[in-house]
Amino acid sequence: MNAKLPRTRLVLGMTAGLATVALATGLGAAQAQDRKPQPSAPQAVVQTSVLGVDAATRAAQAALDAAEKEGQRATVAVLDRSGDVRVLLKGDGAGPQTEESAKRKAFTAVSFGQPTSALNKNAQGTGPTIRDIPGTLFLAGGVPVAVNGGPIAGIGVGGAPSGDLDEKFAAAGLRAIGELR
User: Fold this and answer.
1) Which of 20, 24, 116, 162 has the greatest number of C-beta atoms within 10 Å?
2) What pLDDT digit, counting tens, does each position of 53-67 carry?
3) Would you put residue 21 in left (φ > 0), alpha (ψ -120 to 50) or beta?
4) pLDDT score of 34 more than 90
5) Which PANTHER family does this one have (predicted)?
6) How far apart are the first and last CA of the chain?
7) Pairwise CA distance, residues 78 & 99, whole Å
8) Distance CA 117, CA 32 (A)
9) CA-CA distance, 102 to 87, in Å (whole number)?
10) Which tens digit of pLDDT belongs to each residue from 95-138?
């Protein structure tokens, strides 16, 4: 009988050990099945991308240089996503209206994430349109600066005799900073 006792304890111990492992594994699997993806809580703090002052200055200077190269007296504004001015360069001889024009074109481009020339058709009509939004200007000359498909800034140029030229100069500013990430 003494010889059977250690063997019985061994079998009972192994059985208890296996049962414990099976129970723990089964509970873990059951708990995993019961867990449904919970909706994430809204973030209290959201981080956004901002065009750095160096890049904004390079863009503004490149746009102004492009305008001056073609004999145009213009003003260039670079605004952030909130509509705040990051850089404003008023070229020599630029008219007093060019500052407001450049700022409003940049604001419109960053607000809608499109060049202002593309938005002009949506500002037509006799009833209320997007042209009624304060601070916007739907003349060509504003381009958005985007990161991962989302606008983070706008470059606006005012002062050339046509919006097409203003937009050409704004595009030169965008090219100066390249693709951003």
Assistant:
1) 116
2) 999 999 999 999 999
3) alpha
4) no
5) PROTEIN GLCG, SLR1406 PROTEIN
6) 79
7) 11
8) 54
9) 11
10) 999 999 999 999 999 999 999 999 987 778 788 888 888 999 99
**Domains plus CATH for the chain?**
53-177 (3.30.450.150)
Instruction: Collect all residues with Cβ–Cβ distance below 8 Å to 169 and sequence separation of at least 6.
Output: 63, 64, 66, 67, 70, 72, 74, 76, 141, 157, 160
Mean pLDDT of 80-101: 97
User: For residue 165, what are the CA distances in angstroms to 7, 69, 73, 115, 142?
Assistant: 96, 12, 11, 13, 11
Amino acid at 101: S
Looking at residue 42, its amino acid is P
